[in-house]
Each structure stands twice: as C-alpha cells, then as structure tokens.
Amino acid sequence: MTENKRFSNTPTPAGHKPPAADFHDAASTVQADMARYFAGVNVESEYLKNLLAKTIWIILLSGDRNDLCFGSVVEGHTIAGGIAEVTGDHCIRIDSRQLKHYEEPVAMALLAHELAHDHLRHFKTWKNNLDDEHSADNLAKKWGFNIDQFRKTFGPPVMNSRLQQIAVIR
Predict the structure, then answer these.
(1) Helix, strand, coil shares of the chain as percentages rounded to 5?
(2) Tens-digit pLDDT profile for residues 58-105
(3) How many CA atoms lie within 13 A of 72 on its CB side?
(4) Most CB within 10 Å of its CB: which of 10, 27, 59, 76?
C-alpha cells in the first residue's frame, strides 16, 4: 500500500488575512499535494476521482487544521461486500458502482467517514465496540459533512464482523 500522503494545511494566524501572493502560494501547495495524492491512489473512474477531490477540498477548507494525511485508496470491490471500508492493511476500498446510487452529499459523507477512519488510524487496532464508528462520524461532521443524512440513509453504525475476522487472521 502507499504511504500516507500529507496535505499542507498550515493555519493562518488569527486576525491575519494572507496577502494575495501568500494565498496563491497556499492554493498552489494544496493543488500540488492533491496531484501527488491522486498519483498514489488506484482510482480509475472520473466519478470517484471528482467525488474524492471534492470531499478532500471540503475537509481542507473545514478549518480543522490538524495535520491531515490519508492513506491509499483502491477503487473496486470491498472485502466485506459493502460500499466502502478501511482495511487492516491501511487501505480505503471503495466500490464506486454501488456509491453512484446515492445522492452526492450522502456519498461525500460516506467518503469523509472512511477518510476519518484512516486519518484517526483506526486500521491499526480493531475494537469490539462502536467507538471507532462514532469517532469517525464525529470527525466527518466536524469537517462539515451531513452525517445525520448519511446515517439516515445507511442506518446506525454496526460492527463489520467480516472485517473483524480478517483483522484477527492477520
């Protein structure tokens, strides 16, 4: 799997508006980070590339200035058969054919939820409770995604027993 890709997301000091040149430099840096990130992911469809780029831009603009970095993304079937998952080998797997059936805000919230799992490094440990699901929901909501609509569409968080079994085997 590819290593985490870091996004330049340095905060502007409170009350300080950057000069146009600084803003342009910051935007160029983010664009370069995005290009470098997408060079290291296995996403073929323009649909998923665009949706993932929109999702990451919203995260970057959210004001949450933590040191953002995300691992590899693979487009295709998931191990557990769902739409998206973060696996124990530090990979975000997304089935874009299933994802296309949902409205864009819901699909982006789902991507944000999975990116939150990855950012919070939930792939390192597997718990037998829903704490990771709730913390990923909370972070995605903090980033500005409509997690209430996401949960209304997909239902409350549940444990993915198949991924738990795979994690134990590893």
Answers:
(1) 50, 10, 40
(2) 998 887 656 787 888 999 999 888 899 988 787 899 999 999 999 999
(3) 14
(4) 59
User: Can you tell me the distance from the alpha carbon of 37 to that of 48, in angstroms, rounded to the nearest whole number?
Assistant: 14
Q: How many residues does the chain have?
A: 170
Domain ranges of the chain: 43-169
Q: Pairing between strand 91-94 and 84-87?
A: antiparallel
Q: End-to-end distance of the chain based on CA atoms, in angstroms?
A: 15
CATH topology for 43-169 is Zincin-like (3.30.2010)
pTM of the model as a whole: 0.79
